[in-house]
Amino acid sequence: PSMAKTIRKKAKILLLTPEEASGQEVELSALRRNSDVYIEELWLTDDQREKLEAIYAFSGHPELCNRQFSVRKPKEQVEVAALLASEGLDPDGRASIGNRWTSRWWMDSEKKGIVTRRELYQCDCGYDHTVRESRTRRVAVAFTGCLAHAEILSEVATGRILMVRGLFTHNDGCKSAFLTRIPHLRLHPEVFSVALKQLSVGAQLADIQATNLALFESRGYAAQPADLSKSPYRWLLQKTDTTSLYRQFNRIRGVRTKIAPQDNIHAWLDPHSPSYKEDIASAVFHYAARTERGERFEVCLATKEMRAAAWKYGHGSQIILDGTFGVCDRRVLLFIAMAVDEQGSGVPLAFFLFSAASGAQNTSASYNTDLLERLLLRWKHSLASSSPEPGAVFAPKVAITDTDLKERGALVKGFPHIWLLLCKFHLRQSWRNHRTRVLKGTSTLHSEVRLRLRKLEETLVDSQEYSEAMAVIQNERAVIAAEVQPKDSELASSAVVHLDYLTNYWMQEALWKSWSGYGRRVAGERLGSEVVMILTTTNHLESFNGVLKRKHLRRWQRGNRRLRIDVLLHLLITSIIPSIFAARALEEREHTRLMGMLKTVPGGAQLVEQCERSRTARRSDKSSPLTAAPYAFLAPDLSRDTQAAELLSAHQISVPTYVEHLRAFEFECFSSLATPTDAHPLQYTIVVGLDGSAACSCPDFRYHGGACKHLRAAILRLGTLRRQGLGFPDISLPATLEDARA
Known about the structure:
Blueprint: H1 3-9, H2 18-21, H3 30-33, H4 46-56, E1 64-68, H5 74-87, H6 91-95, E2 101-111, E3 114-123, E4 149-155, E5 161-167, H7 172-175, H8 189-200, H9 205-217, H10 241-252, H11 261-269, H12 278-283, E6 284-288, E7 298-301, H13 304-314, E8 318-325, E9 332-340, E10 346-355, H14 369-382, E11 398-401, H15 405-414, E12 419-422, H16 424-438, H17 444-462, H18 466-484, H19 489-506, H20 509-515, H21 517-527, H22 539-553, H23 565-598, H24 604-619, H25 638-649, E13 657-659, E14 664-670, E15 683-689, E16 694-696, H26 699-704, H27 709-723, H28 737-741
Parallel strand pairs: 8-11, 11-12
Antiparallel strand pairs: 1-5, 2-3, 3-4, 4-5, 6-7, 7-10, 8-9, 9-10, 13-14, 14-15, 15-16
């Protein structure tokens, strides 16, 4: 061990003044008078450090200065002011263009309402830039090995000096040193203050620089003198100020960027650490440090608002789980659990951050089912403390994920009774990618086969019976063999490869249940909601991930550089998540205010009641059980309208027959997949009543209601016949679900 460390292990004999010994209050205690000067904070070469350790090893060394001054005695304050001025350490000297002192360390402390600051300065001639692994020396004077340094203890509010310590003897090289390069002028504190205020509200660096330029040109800074030649400060921000600006900003928020990010996080979460942050620790429900190569860094969080939202919107309801990466400057993945509120907006419930496995080549896939299961269980158990009912166990009934089976496995293990759905977008994307890969060609026949396969996939997604779905694929094989094989055997083989892909993987019955219409129907039954209220994609979470990266995180990035993991954690808990929930609360208040205003105008009360019913329906609709007949209403749907027009032009829908006892027209419509070679083509029955009621036997209408493509084709067929002068009445369907129920 070094001599300095050895010395600090020795017990010190503290000499108390008579006043302190008698219990009287003193300005400077014996403990503070005899505290160590932190020479390890100075930027020294090994040779300089050895020399200073030798000097401090012997108390009373003639070159050392250690003087105390009373803040109550003006004479002593004048004396210390003269001492500091003679060394260039007074405020004016440190601000001058010839200043040779640089602050290396400082610390504030408070006692009985008085804040004091210890600040350590080093002579610029004693700084060797190679110690900091810098290639370029920017200090105005050359390095001479000078050992001079000074520690000043002062009152922050008044600037009065309590103690001056250090070594003021400069070596000969320092005494004769001249400026060898243009000195760096200090930026005026007010410029920093304005810039820090802008950073605190998320301003970008370009905005800060523009504001600085505008204030400088207009003399908008309060302390900016009319004659700048007399100012020892700079007033324009430079590129070299950016690092200091962001470092000060992070220090104000309690993030020490000079130490490793993981050390910061550990200190914030350690109750015995002086850097412990209760607001951050209370939001973190799981933390695991990475102490060995094979371990992962893990930190999971849910603020008080997120826990409440989990019970309100996630418990007994549906949640979304998905992951992303690229949120910080390390190989860390972020998984988010989300629910949907009454407005249909996504609400984040929990954030799961963990590092990629050691040696993993692909960060985005560097996780497994066991890891996700463990983190989900930690979240589940942590929610018990915020349960609205004693003994309640957090248990969402339905969850939707992308096509990642690891997420699905973790959800099933963490919540054994959950019903899983697959995101329709990711499902169709997988199918489209495979179809594109195996069907390569630009002929008309290629286009027809692609269209048939797309329509087949649409039918599978809406399928309600497993046997029927398998039969549809089998029927398509027969069509390919009968119609495509004779014309292009290679194309037929490629189409069969795609059908095999669907059959062998996606049509496994357990997996089929999660992406088919059957799965959505079961989810609706479990939630007591209409099928149309069930989430079919993870778009809410995908959108949130984009907003998080491109809006919330980018506000705090420096030059679009990814944030440190400790800065990310700090921002999520103290800024980003609170701002999201604050915005939600404000939007709710604004909605309440608007509804209150509407009630005061004619017809407003009914409109408000209708809106509130609609909001409630988005969460659940217990009054309309799934066993009841679905309602027919003609809501705008470009996709179904296009498909209806195709059915009509292909003559797939029959001329209507009027049924007297039903007072309705009845149609027969072949499936869009039916072909002339089908021995038993699939067909549906459509009924359109004179009173505007309607129904169709297809799965789309049976389980979704509204207006399927067959119903829309029937309406188009009636319109065509009426325009031909055949005397068919003009029948229109209700435009909304509320109108259909009325």
